[in-house]
Design brief:
The chain has 318 residues and is α/β, with parallel strands linked by helices. The protein has a single domain (4-304), classed as NAD(P)-binding Rossmann-like Domain (Rossmann fold, 3-Layer(aba) Sandwich), CATH 3.40.50. It has ten helices and nine strands. The strands form two sheets. It has a seven-stranded parallel sheet with strand order 3-2-1-4-5-6-9, sandwiched between helices. Strand 7, helix 4 (178-187) and strand 8 form a beta-alpha-beta unit. Helix 2 runs parallel beside helix 3 (139-153). The longest helix is centred in the first third of the chain and has 24 residues, at 80-103.
């Protein structure tokens, strides 16, 4: 049956893919956008500012699902201004969506909110799950905690089921994403280990990201937090070796910590994005029956490698 799904953050990388995926299945997608003409083709746009209530809230009245992916990119230097933008773009948008839902006569039955696997500590000694995983410390972790607090603290009608997806790095063959950047480094001969290479790299294929979002929409019994990460979590050394193998590049120069610091400064980003060991496991999704289409890195890389026509074509419901 056709569903009406509202996506906040539909203009971002994940929002665009998810919108195309859902529309392919026959769903109606409404995108909350800050600028007219920025949503994917086929998405009905509704203007909002992500901060204040307005007529945009009417889009939630009668909708089946709300998916919130709104938030400033973390691929930047963590100066005071950017820190404030990263935090506020996530918490403010989440709070105002909660306010809009509380006013709806027919609120969405499901609210799926983005979160991040970064909420866990740097872990090289074992995987972190939703039950026994240990939360970390530092700026990125505090942002994740505040984000989930705003989400679960939102006072909405009891009929609204909430799911926060703690998502790992999402791999897709699209410009400026993690996969595209690392592929380019490998091709330039710079695809060796980063730092000591022992940090774990949690990842998920874009297909499985979209499938998981739809899966939690359809499971009436599923709520709370859920890690979204493929079963195989390699070390950075192993991850980069797999990329080199797929690209046909036998060797790659390693990057020591000080080289990473210089590179991060030059690229206006932070080393934490590649040096933190994110070792998650999707315990709750797996226990409830979700099965990953791309559980192993080799298969995912083979599917995403340039030349397979995957750039910006979206995912398909195979």
């Amino acid at each position: 049956m056709k569903r009406r799904i509202v996506i906040a953050g539909v203009t971002g990388f994940l929002g665009r893919y998810l919108a195309r995926y859902l529309m392919e299945g026959g769903d109606e997608v409404i995108g909350l956008v800050r600028k007219e003409g920025t949503a994917p083709v086929g998405v009905r746009e509704v203007l909002w500012d992500g901060v204040t209530l307005g007529d945009w809230g009417e889009a939630l009245d009668g909708a089946d699902v709300l998916v919130n992916l709104a938030g400033r990119s973390v691929n930047c230097r963590y100066d005071a201004r950017h820190r404030a933008e990263i935090l506020e773009s996530r918490t403010a948008s989440t709070r105002i969506l909660g306010d809009a839902i509380s006013l709806a006569k027919r609120p969405p039955r499901v609210w799926v909110n983005s979160s991040t696997l970064t909420i866990y500590r740097h872990a090289e000694d074992g995987p972190q799950d939703e039950v026994g995983g240990e939360l970390g410390s530092g700026f990125s972790v505090e942002v994740a905690k505040a984000w989930e607090k705003a989400f679960f603290g939102a006072r909405v009608p009891g009929v609204v089921r909430k799911v926060a997806l703690r998502t790992s790095v999402v791999l897709a063959n699209e410009p400026k994403t993690v996969f595209a950047v690392l592929w380019r480094l490998v091709k330039w001969g710079l695809g060796g280990r980063m730092g000591n290479g022992r940090q774990r790299v949690s990842w998920v294929h874009i297909d499985d990201f979209c499938r998981a979002v739809e899966w939690v929409m359809e499971r009436d019994e599923f709520e709370g937090v859920a890690n979204l990460v493929a079963p195989e979590v390699p070390s950075n050394r192993e991850f980069m070796a797999a990329l080199r193998g797929r690209a046909g590049v036998p060797m790659g120069l390693p990057a020591t910590r000080w080289i990473l610091e210089i590179g991060a400064w030059a690229l206006r980003t932070e080393t934490e994005l590649v040096t933190k060991s994110r070792w998650g496991v999707a315990r709750r999704l797996s226990e409830h029956g979700f099965r990953f289409r791309w559980p192993r890195l080799e298969g995912a890389l083979a599917d995403l490698a340039p030349g397979r026509g995957r750039v910006m074509v979206g995912v398909t419901k195979k």
